[in-house]
Amino acid sequence: MWVRRTSVFLSVAVMVGGLGAAVPVTAAPVGAGLVKQPVATGYGGAVSTVDLDASRAGLRVLRAGGNAVDAAVAAAAALGVTEPYSAGLGGGGFLLYYDARTHRVHTLDGRETAPAAMGADAFLDPTTGQPLAFVDAVTSGLSVGVPGTPATWAAALRRWGTRDLAEVLRPATELARQGFVVDPTFYQQTVDNAARFAHFTSTAALYLPGGRPVPVGGVQHNPDLARTYQQLARQGIGAVYRGPLAAEIAGTAEHPPLVPGDPYTARPGLLRLADLAAYRAIERAPTQVRYHDLDVYGMAPPSSGGPTVGEALNILADLPPADLSPADPVPALHDYLESTRLAFADRNRYVGDPDQVDVPLAELLAPGFAAERACLIDPLRAATSPVPPGRPDGEYHGCPAPLGAGGGEPSEGPNTTSLVTADRWGNVVAYTLTIEQTGGSGMVVPGRGFLLNNELTDFNFAPTQGSAPDPNLPAPGKRPRSSMAPTIVLRDGQPFLAVGSPGGATIITTVLQVLINRLDLGMDLPEAIAAPRASQRNGVSTTAEPAFLDAYGAALVARGQLFSRTAEIGAATGLEFAGRGLIVAAAEPARRGGGSAVVVWPAR
Fold first, then answer.
1. pLDDT tens by residue, 174-229
2. Mean per-residue pLDDT, 145-160
3. Which of 25, 358, 388, 502 could form a disulfide with 167 if both were Cys (CB 3.0 to 4.6 A apart)?
């Protein structure tokens, strides 16, 4: 297993006067035993991310007396340094928060928005009327939406945090200034993007110094990002949306910083200062479904994560219990693949930005609708994709004929990051954030040290639903549909599980499969995360990891499932509350180089 990067500095706040003492988030030597590991068990709070430096940053805030929200923002800011091709100030995301005092789950929608000048034909070639080539749309200013991550941090800290922005940014600021050691994952991601990074002066200067990536074992510095974080610590997040920094963000999208003489056509963006000034992170009601004796909370539209995970769970709950047996997982896995095949058909047809399209969310999550969809599942024979969507119309009886032909598998960037945190008071955060493709738009804001997103390519470039309205076409101020699925599970009003994953549209299936592994197939949380995966998204075939095919492929092919092989799916993080204050934090043992789980007080 690859050993993921280690920061040049190793620091964490020291506990003073016991767990109850709140001390400043200042640099201090790391305690013995704080090393990278995919599983940690203990008390007083926990953090799980894809990266050791980010987990350390969150732990440092927890040990200084901060809560789960403070730790989540600190960890996310550190991921902006060490996972800059997945997340950062130039992107967006969705945050779920469980408040231990009120026993309520809240959510923040920090999804990027389209500029006011963006119309439904924005991604059509003006000369041919055909959709632009995806690769050309991505690496351009046209793909850049208004960043939502900074506003999410500010809103979360203001509503639920206990520390100020300056304190929670301090670990990431130090990390950016002093640098981190490049590991094989970061190096390979840079190599994979080197050709498009080389088009832009600012990106090449940061990530291709001397014309090539920093080698494995070398130190990647980002002093520009350190200075940007310091500015935000002084001035607040508002600097991203108004003033000189906002002008630089808009200017980078409008006038991509191409290397002089570079022949690449980087389409100019539509983002303007007024778009940044108008942005708001929105608190939305979470999705909620009942599965067994648990309440499963997720993110509502414009994310399709909560609706699709929830609908699939409702479908599975309507199937015969005999199909859910740890002794023989094949029937359960067949049902899992069929449930997501159907749920994705409904996702593609109905889910979009609820502020601009009518999303029948309550009906998509209605048990009656799930029963209509479940009756289409043959326990011995897979359906042929694409299956058509159902009718979430409130009239549920029998097994009605579905609507016309369904849309196929969605196209969505695979690179995102997800983290979970908990504190000693029982508050919990599940937070998924992204800049979309690996490396986003490819454009670093000059002198600022962060990449801009390409989230607007999550819109459908052209109508995909035939004569039916397409809920995911571009429009002014609209938020593109997402698959991010941070999830919190409660038992009797108390937190039981929290989980999330990157992976584009496979996020939904990864989160669902982790839940099924844990709740139905007898696995503990680390096993549920480590288990091999498959992802059916209403596509002709199911993408599956080699270990999944080795274990279950033949039996599932006998039931009519078709497979295509992929190296890995997702990179999940999770927490489980095991009773009497004990927390199990878990991350990937191998995928994406392995993740990092830490706890405040390790169990002995």
1. 999 999 999 999 999 999 999 999 999 999 999 999 999 999 999 999 999 999 99
2. 98
3. 25
- Angstrom distance (rounded) from CA 275 to CA 254: 12
User: Is 324 among the domain residues?
Assistant: no
Give the DSSP per-residue string, 273-309. Answer: HHHHHT---EEEPPEEEEETTEEEEEPPTTBSHHHHH
SS3 152: helix
The H or E element that residue 423 is part of is strand 417-423
Alpha-carbon torsion (288, 45, 94, 344), positive or negative:
negative
Catalytic: 416? yes
Task: Please indicate, yes or no, if residue 562 is contained in any of the structural domains.
Answer: no
10, 13, 60, 107, 384 from 29: Cα distances, Å: 6, 8, 11, 35, 57
> Tell me: the pLDDT tens digits for 302-349?
999 999 999 999 999 999 876 667 788 999 999 999 999 999 999 999
Closest CA to 71 of 482, 598, 513: 598
Task: Look at the block and give the residue holding tokens 């990278």.
Answer: 36
- Residue 318 phi/psi, 5-degree rounding, is -90, -5
The full DSSP string for 18-76 is: STT--------BPPTT----SEEEEEEEEEEES-HHHHHHHHHHHHTT--HHHHHHHHH
Q: How confident is the model at residue 413 (pLDDT cuts 50, 70, 90)?
A: low
In Å, what is the CA distance from 408 to each residue of 387, 405, 411, 465? 8, 9, 9, 10
Q: What is the pLDDT of residues 256-301, one digit of tens each?
A: 999 999 999 999 999 999 999 999 999 999 999 999 999 999 999 9
**Quick one: CA dihedral 291, 532, 345, 573, positive or negative?**
positive
Residue count of the chain, please give it: 604
Establish whether the linkage from the previous residue to 302 is cis, with ω within 30° of 0.
yes
Which tokens sit at 601? Answer: 């007080």
> What one-character DSSP code corresponds to residue 549?
I
- Let me know if residue 107 belongs to a domain: no
- Distance (Å, whole) CA 283 – CA 432: 15
Number of structural domains in the chain: 1
In this structure, what is the dihedral angle of CA atoms 100, 101, 105, 108, given to the nearest 10 degrees?
Answer: -100
The answer to whether 481 touches 352, Cβ cutoff 8 Å, is yes
Q: Residue written as tokens 């439904």?
A: 120
Cβ burial of 524 (10 Å; 0-12, 13-18, 19+) is: middle
Nearest CA-CA partner of 303 in 486, 125, 475, 444: 486
Q: How far apart are the first and last CA of the chain?
A: 26
Cβ-proximal residues to 504 (8 Å cutoff; 6+ apart), any chain: 412, 413, 414, 415, 416, 483
Residue 187 lies in a domain: yes
Q: What is the DSSP letter of 318?
A: T
Report the pLDDT value the prediction gives residue 6, as an integer from 0 to 100.
38
Partner residues linked to 291 by β-bridges:
294
For residue 117, the tally of other CB atoms under 10 A from its CB is: 13
Residue range of the domain that includes 74 = 68-92+115-280+425-458
Q: Exactly one of 41, 49, 287, 416 is catalytic; which is it?
A: 416
CA 115 to chain centre: 22
Q: Could you tell me which residues are beta bridge partners of residue 587?
A: 573
Residue 564 phi, psi dihedral angles, 5° rounding: -125, 145
Tally of CB atoms within 10 A around 6: 15
- Residue 491 exposure: Cα atoms within 13 Å on the Cβ side: 10
